[in-house]
Amino acid sequence: MARRLRIASIDWFERPVEFRGPFKFGAVTVTAASQLFLFAEIETEDGHRSLGATAELMVPKWFNKDPALTPDQTVEQLRRALTIARDAYLSHRQFDTAFGHHAEEHAAVLQTCAREGIPGLAAAFGPAEIDKAILDALLRACRRDVFSGLKDNIAGLDARLTPDLDDGVIARYLQSRKPLAQMLVRHTVGMADPVDQLASIHAQTGCRYFKLKLSGDASTDTERLAEIAGTLDAIGMDYRVTLDANEQYGSHDALTALGEGLRSRAQFGNFLQRLLYVEQPLPRDLTFGTPLGEFGKSFAVIVDEGESDYDAFPKAVALGYRGISSKACKGIYKSLINGARAALWSGNGAAHAFLAGEDLTCQAGLAVQQDTALLAFHGVGHSERNGHHFVGGFPSTPGDEVQAFLDAHPDLYEERDGEVRLAIRGGALAIGSLAQPGYASGVDPQAIRDGGVGPEAAKAL
């Protein structure tokens, strides 16, 4: 049953995150980024106050790839989107459901951002982070875990922003969910990563799902994929792969060349049988004006960066796409709505549609736990989930906070060689400990906020 609340405060800080080595995706190479920690305090109608928290890496040049902007300028857009969203949410002083607060301010936030040149994907970052923290606070106030809370629609999700659905479809979807107890890890292979590391990664973690980054040049990508296919075949495991172009294929013709290159070479025979889907091949400004045609019939294709609003999934399916990524940084309510759509379309035979679990940037702690819980609620069985591989543990995090996460989630983390990191066993993460009061975290939000204000650990906003 939905609960009504009023938002008392929203604040945040950042922590610097240094990568262990360069990670190249699309046209950018990332060596460091800031991780946002955001807090929302709410008051329920019975006068109870509760604090909730969330976290997210603010990735340069992903939310906005405009070549005219520097990486730092794209991150500044995220900060501005947060400020615009905070001011909008705090102006809504009435008691309302968690989703009601989002729905009331959603259009205004996107419109204000658009006037300042902030694209939809970046604009959505502000509400997405605030919504996660509000949900955490609400679940804590009600002493509910995220799986039972979402199942009972504690946030009050309805169809007011999605005229293609009705409230009954959403309610039935939420009630039908049976959350998973583990998450298979899909290991990301960046364009600068050595191919010969795949054998050792499989040996160390048991991972057999891999996400392969593409450059946007069909010839270059085909040659690299041939090397990867040979390496994976030689390991002799039952592997699965996905391809991620990060918008780098500049035309449908270029995308067609990739498909022809993969289908024409005998060495890709086994590889293609294990290829699950291709992610966001075209730039977002071409996505919704370019039918996929034969490429979409040969390969399952999903939208990622192209999702800036609630209507993205239906528009994409009409053009030949099959799926869409679920990412908490794009919005938990968009994810839930898209899950309801995929179930409805697949159930009535109109389309075989699905959600995909993506997000390399989820770092250890709140970010990876909350996004993983959202995927587990949907029943998405595998996900790109190895931001720790490029960062390592809990960087720039106070030791007592790291210990608190380890103590609260001993199935999800382990201490090895003096570093606390995700415990990947048999290629999977055990996530049973995420089912405790709050949004998938057993750590007190106030302790995180208190530990983040020191000048050595945080950059105040």
Question: How would you summarize this macromolecular structure in one to three sentences?
Answer:
The chain is an alpha/beta fold and 461 residues long. It is built from 18 helices and 16 strands.
What are the key terms here?
461 residues, alpha/beta, Enolase-like, domain 1, TIM Barrel, 2 domains, nine-stranded mixed sheet, five-stranded antiparallel sheet, 22% strand, globular, disordered C terminus
Question: Could you characterize the architecture of this molecule?
Answer:
The protein is of the alpha/beta class. It has two domains: 4-174, Enolase-like, N-terminal domain (Enolase-like, domain 1), CATH 3.30.390; 178-451, Enolase-like C-terminal domain (TIM Barrel, Alpha-Beta Barrel), CATH 3.20.20.120. 41% of the residues lie in helices and 22% in strands. The protein has helices at 71-91, 98-115, 120-123, 125-142, 146-151, 167-176, 198-205, 218-235, 252-264, 269-273, 284-287, 294-298, 312-318, 332-348, 366-378, 387-391, 399-408, 445-451; strands at 4-25, 28-44, 49-58, 96-97, 182-189, 209-213, 240-244, 275-279, 301-303, 323-326, 354-357, 382-384, 413-416, 419-422, 428-430, 459-460. The strands form three sheets. Strands 5, 6, 7, 8, 9, 10, 11, 12 and 15 form a nine-stranded mixed beta sheet that branches. Helix 7 (198-205) links the parallel strand 5 and strand 6 (209-213). Helix 1 crosses helix 2 and helix 2 (98-115) runs antiparallel to helix 4. The longest helix is centred in the first third of the chain and has 21 residues, at 71-91. The chain is globular. The chain starts with a strand and ends with a strand.
